[in-house]
Amino acid sequence: MRRYKWESNLYHGKPYVAGEQPQDEGLVKLNTNENPYPPAPAAVKALRAFAKKSETLKLYPPTDGGALREALADYHEVDTANVFVGNGSDEVLAYAFRACFVGYDPVLFADVTYSFYPVWCQLMDIQKKFIPVKRDLHLRAMSYWRKNGGIVICNPNAPTGIGEGDEFLRDILRHNRKSVVIVDEAYADFAEFSAIPLTAQFPNLLVTRSFSKGRSLAGLRIGYAIGNERLIRALTLVKNSFNSYPVSRLAIEVGTAALSDEKYYRKTIAKVVKTREKTAEGLRKLGFDVPPSQTNFLFCDAASKERAQALFAHLREDGILVRHFDKPRIRSYLRISIGKDLDMEVLVESVKAFLLKEE
Ligand SMILES: *Cc1c(COP(=O)(O)O)cnc(C)c1O
Hints:
Mean pLDDT: 96
Helix content: 25-40%
Bound molecules: pyridoxal-5'-phosphate
Distance between the termini: 49 Å
Strand order of the largest sheet: 2-8-7-6-5-3-4
Largest sheet: 7 strands, mixed
């Protein structure tokens, strides 16, 4: 094919590849870590109420997330100056990379972690250095005691599901006062630990959160960050250099309502965690190594790449969609999102059938 000269001026970086979103509704969809339960009743009620004042959509929303930002400040017991709201935490993270990583030294993150980080580095010309995780897939704090232009820790980590605790993060923060540490807490709703309280003590710590997993609102796109007001100001500067109104009026109303329904939130999280533990037990009984998860997914070791691919294909034939990453160190694993109890029973039965076929 003929290449035109102007084509060499086009962006050709490697993008992030999201899990498949099939149109076929009959599939058991365990591939993108969505919450199997619906959004909170209060959120649905707010959605209905919004329809009655749809006229307001002719107006731009507030630039800073308005009532949602205030509600998040209340919820986390911080000042509004410590909260930044964005259009999904992916957007908040992208802004944070631009806002916090303008130094010359490489930004550090794990070799096994969320694969969007290297994509943003490439997009924004940020130097990066991959820090190997331990053999058991835990992060090694000591490996981050080095000169850097910033650190990104996904905690609990994706796609491993493994969570690190207070001591680990304090260790990293104590050894790193000169650059920004971003902690991506997309899955912290399902974990025992959050770094948000540490933001009061460490001014260079920025924590990002999402409404997509824990609050069943992936389709609405809400994410936020908590941190020192200087970090939030830098984020706001980047946002205002890109898109003044990223969070819609609808997202502000529905998100604020979702946040008010603590009882429903706790109940759905507890259900997912219970199903997760039961499924992990079931898979371990079938001989799979499944590291303890603090997220809404399991990382299941099928012992080899070939076997992982065979199991992936077998599950797919049975109408069950999971994820396989053909990447160094994790080729033998499948990542399985936690669905409802019945979905997971169907999964375990299908895995059993795979094992019988193998014999
Ligand atoms: C899902 C996910 C995000 C993005 O969440 P959104 O709020 O939907 O943009 C960020 N980080 C990790 C590790 C995730 O798994």
